[in-house]
């Protein structure tokens, strides 16, 4: 929201320095993210971006002036000599080639720049500031100029000089006439009422103990009543709470007053013509969008009969060409304004091209209505069409503002468009919302905030915000103003308003009445954070994705899932259900990152959601997903021979998970091969088993699945684990052993077993046979070759023997080692390489 301060002062006095005003608004919840200067120097205490600075309009050198005479240039057909009065003893003659002033003109009010003025050079590319100096233009001396909006830094218009309103004063510094500071507060959804000048004015009034002045709306009704000229029907009051129509006859289409045009420009809107500009002006002033139809076009569409305005849902197959000249296909869930011939506008979003106000329009039908914000938001998303009106409707507006805005627009059209306002108003208002009255005990203030606020301050703040107060024995009965749709929580919302306006920075400092209670840890969150740290230490980058997806996207993984938790009002078709799997979300980040680098290692910790029969809320489960892709080595110099670096494989992924298990002190975790996991490569897939329960899967992504997720020709290693089950396996207490004081002895053993025997089985037998003396077992080689029989494989292990109370003798070592060999021969039908 762009707020020109000169415009704001029409409604509330703003006397404090701009820097202080910005700070007060920011602390009150309206953070000012920027501001722009038009002709004024930067206020003390503020820094402005270079792109938001216009030339400073020197008070003595850039002034308003009046044309006394325009004559031909003696030596140039396209140039003219303009004699100007500007408050000095003698008039000034300047040379101009502006196309919007002609020989013989007299009386126009313009802007005069005198020698020494600093303006944008209209002939320089890129644009730059330059000082105006005396010169000769085709033989005629010229030390001044009449200024365009471009040269003054107002906008990029090169098409002629600025022509001010006829009632503009002469000889006044331009700074005092249209110079302005425009602040840009960020309006959050809970403060949608501040998407208007009056909304901002109410906040400023409350912050500065001022009173808001609402403009009067004097209307002189003329002619036949509007009820004889138009009918209005609302098909579904739930989608349109109120619709009003006014008729303004015999309007004159011309530019709006210059001051109105500048206010619209400073606020970020493009001026068009007076009637359309008035509807935009009133929308910015009140926050209530309006729309003007060409009434004669409506009569023509009705076959010369009284037109009927119908607020209804669009019909299948209907189309509408909107004001941006785009033909849009409508859907049955879109709300439209229609007549008996078809749609004429997208309700609350954009008007139709056929019924727009043009230079030839004479009679105007003025719409002021209230539409359902959910419907507006849905249509905006569906059509990817956002307008100033839809932005306001989509955040919610009270139906009571409808008539206030309509009255204001009619008064302005009567004044600046010569319109004749028909008596009455067609007002269809099926169900007026109840007035909200809150019982507000004064004791509640101290209970919630921790300190009391004087009754006088309570009444000052709430009255300034247009709440109505009635004193009671214990506090007040507060009537909520119609523009405050955000007041929903009763007294708590009123207390927030008091704290916000009084200033959170002014809260008194008090000692605690007691010591802070001891804080209890949250094991679930602490465990999750530990896993996050361990994965980051392993070299993985964390990503966070939306928890919303589509069933079709998850189905690409080939996993059967249960019914989804569906959103009633999704932001888009791509975000309509809650995810049940984490890997598909992770693939989005993987694809995105692989466009920028060859090696990507990601993880995500998040929740998945499963619908539960006969339950309102879904079951939420925490999962951790991992994805690795690319080369194992990070730097090219890791491979001195210049060979293609090895790619990350299954064992790199397994190593990450083993590290995780080791650091979490999870005992008895095993990896079990599984060729039946649909989305993983057969033979390169496994399950993670902890305490006999499968808690996750890991492996290489199947090429077919990779192709579905735009990961073609990529070797992707993935894992998804049940985080809750993983953390549940972490022991509450760790069993620590003293550091051994006696030396260890190392022996190697190569065991030849059947191909069907896993290394895990062999290790288990080794540990069983080795007993307490066998401290560690490490597989360091797997071999199949000419010296090994078909169907067999050789597994080489490094065995560490150690006793806690003595140094082992060679005799003890030999005895234990031979016992292990004998056990393997018996239990696994193994042979010991080099001995059998």
UniProtKB/TrEMBL annotation:
Family stated for the protein in its record: Belongs to the phenylalanyl-tRNA synthetase beta subunit family. Type 1 subfamily.
Chain ranges of the B5 domain: 433-509
Subcellular location: Cytoplasm
Organism: Tuwongella immobilis
Keyword Metal-binding: yes
Any GO BP annotation: phenylalanyl-tRNA aminoacylation
Required co-factors: Mg(2+)
Catalytic reaction equation(s): tRNA(Phe) + L-phenylalanine + ATP = L-phenylalanyl-tRNA(Phe) + AMP + diphosphate + H(+)
NCBIfam families, per the entry: pheT_bact
One Gene Ontology term, aspect cellular component: phenylalanine-tRNA ligase complex
Keywords: Aminoacyl-tRNA synthetase, ATP-binding, Cytoplasm, Ligase, Magnesium, Metal-binding, Nucleotide-binding, Protein biosynthesis, RNA-binding, tRNA-binding
GO molecular function: ATP binding; magnesium ion binding; phenylalanine-tRNA ligase activity; tRNA binding
Domain TRNA-binding: 56-175
Gene name of this polypeptide: pheT
Protein name: Phenylalanine--tRNA ligase beta subunit
PANTHER family named in the record: PHENYLALANINE--TRNA LIGASE BETA SUBUNIT, PHENYLALANYL-TRNA SYNTHETASE BETA CHAIN AND LEUCINE-RICH REPEAT-CONTAINING PROTEIN 47
Domain FDX-ACB: residue ranges: 740-833
InterPro entries with a match to the protein in the record: aa-tRNA-synth_II/BPL/LPL, B3/B4_tRNA-bd, DNA-bd_dom_put_sf, Fdx_antiC-bd, Fdx_antiC-bd_sf, NA-bd_OB-fold, Phe-tRNA-ligase_IIc_bsu, Phe-tRNA-ligase_IIc_bsu_bact
Record text on subunit structure and interactions: Tetramer of two alpha and two beta subunits.
Co-factor: note: Binds 2 magnesium ions per tetramer.
Sites where the protein binds Mg(2+): 486, 493, 496-497
UniProt xrefs under CDD domains: PheRS_beta_core, tRNA_bind_bactPheRS
EC number, as in UniProt: 6.1.1.20
HAMAP family per UniProt: Phe_tRNA_synth_beta1
């Amino acid at each position: 929201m762009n707020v020109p301060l000169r415009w704001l002062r029409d409604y509330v006095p703003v006397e404090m320095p701009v820097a202080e005003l910005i700070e007060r608004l920011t602390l009150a919840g309206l953070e000012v993210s920027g501001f722009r200067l038009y002709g004024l120097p930067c206020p003390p205490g503020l820094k402005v971006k270079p792109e938001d600075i216009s030339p400073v309009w020197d008070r003595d050198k850039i002034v308003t002036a009046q044309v006394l005479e325009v004559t031909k240039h003696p030596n140039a057909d396209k140039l003219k000599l303009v004699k100007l009065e500007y408050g000095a003893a003698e008039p000034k003659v300047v040379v101009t080639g502006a196309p919007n002033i002609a020989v013989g003109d007299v009386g126009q009010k313009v802007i005069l720049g005198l020698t020494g003025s600093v303006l944008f050079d209209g002939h320089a590319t890129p644009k730059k500031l330059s000082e105006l100096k005396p010169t000769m233009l085709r033989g005629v001396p010229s030390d001044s100029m009449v200024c365009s909006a471009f040269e003054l830094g107002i906008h990029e218009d090169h098409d002629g000089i600025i022509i001010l309103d006829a009632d503009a004063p002469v000889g006044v510094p331009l700074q005092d006439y249209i110079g302005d500071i425009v602040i840009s507060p960020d309006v959050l959804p809970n403060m949608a009422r501040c998407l208007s000048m009056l909304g901002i004015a109410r906040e400023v009034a409350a912050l500065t103990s001022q009173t808001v002045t609402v403009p009067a709306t004097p209307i002189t009704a003329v002619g036949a009543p509007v009820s004889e000229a138009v009918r209005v029907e609302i098909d579904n009051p739930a989608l349109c709470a109120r619709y009003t129509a006014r008729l303004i006859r015999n309007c004159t289409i011309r530019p709006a007053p210059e001051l109105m045009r500048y206010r619209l420009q400073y606020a970020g809107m493009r001026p068009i013509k007076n009637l359309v500009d008035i509807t935009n002006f009133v929308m910015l002033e009140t926050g209530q969008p309006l729309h003007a139809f060409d009434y004669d076009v409506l009569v023509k569409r009705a076959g010369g009969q009284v037109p009927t305005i119908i607020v209804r849902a669009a019909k299948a197959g209907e189309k509408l060409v909107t004001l941006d000249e785009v033909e849009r296909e409508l859907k049955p869930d879109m709300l439209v304004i229609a007549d008996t011939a078809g749609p004429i506008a997208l309700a609350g979003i954009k008007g139709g091209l056929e019924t727009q106000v043009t230079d030839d329009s004479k009679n105007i039908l003025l719409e002021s209505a209230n539409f359902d914000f959910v419907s507006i938001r849905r249509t905006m998303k569906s059509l990817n069409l956002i307008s100033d009106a839809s932005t306001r409707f989509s955040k919610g507006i009270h139906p009571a503002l409808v008539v206030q805005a309509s009255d204001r627009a009619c008064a302005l059209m009567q004044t600046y468009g010569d319109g004749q306002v028909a008596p009455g108003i067609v007002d269809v208002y099926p169900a007026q919302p109840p007035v909200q009255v809150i019982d507000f005990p004064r004791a509640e203030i101290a209970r919630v905030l921790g300190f009391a606020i004087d009754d006088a301050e309570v009444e000052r703040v709430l009255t300034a915000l247009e709440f109505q107060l009635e004193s009671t024995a214990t506090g007040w009965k507060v009537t909520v103003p119609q523009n405050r749709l955000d007041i929903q929580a009763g007294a708590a919302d009123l207390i927030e308003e008091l704290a916000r306006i009084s200033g959170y920075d002014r809260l008194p400092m008090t000692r605690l009445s007691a010591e802070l209670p001891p804080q209890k840890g949250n094991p679930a969150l602490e465990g999750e954070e530990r896993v996050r740290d361990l994965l980051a230490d392993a070299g993985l980058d964390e990503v966070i994705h939306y928890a919303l997806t589509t069933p079709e996207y998850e189905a690409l993984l080939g996993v059967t899932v249960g019914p989804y938790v569906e959103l009633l009002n999704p932001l888009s078709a791509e975000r309509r259900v809650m995810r049940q799997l984490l890997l598909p979300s992770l693939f989005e980040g993987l694809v995105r990152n692989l466009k920028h680098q060859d090696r990507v290692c990601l993880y995500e910790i998040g929740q998945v959601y499963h619908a539960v029969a006969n339950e309102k809320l879904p079951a939420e489960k925490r999962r951790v997903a991992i994805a690795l892709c690319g080369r194992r080595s990070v730097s090219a110099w890791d491979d001195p021979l210049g060979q293609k670096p090895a790619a990350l494989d299954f064992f790199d992924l397994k190593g990450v998970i083993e590290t995780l298990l080791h650091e979490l002190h999870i005992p008895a975790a095993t990896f079990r091969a599984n060729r039946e996991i649909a989305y993983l490569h057969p033979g390169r897939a496994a399950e993670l088993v902890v305490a006999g329960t499968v808690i996750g899967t890991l492996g290489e992504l199947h090429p077919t699945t990779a192709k579905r997720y735009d990961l073609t020709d990529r070797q992707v290693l993935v894992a998804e684990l049940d985080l809750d089950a993983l953390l549940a396996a972490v022991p509450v207490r760790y069993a620590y052993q003293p550091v051994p004081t006696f030396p260890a002895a190392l022996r190697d053993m190569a065991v030849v077993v059947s191909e069907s025997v896993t290394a895990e089985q062999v290790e288990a037998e080794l540990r069983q046979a080795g007993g307490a003396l066998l401290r560690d077992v490490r597989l360091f080689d797997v071999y199949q070759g000419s010296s090994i029989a078909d169907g067999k494989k050789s597994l080489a292990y490094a065995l560490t023997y150690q006793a806690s109370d003595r140094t082992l003798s060679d005799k003890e070592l030999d005895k234990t080692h031979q016992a292990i060999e004998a056990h393997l021969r018996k239990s696994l039908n193994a042979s010991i390489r080099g001995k059998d």
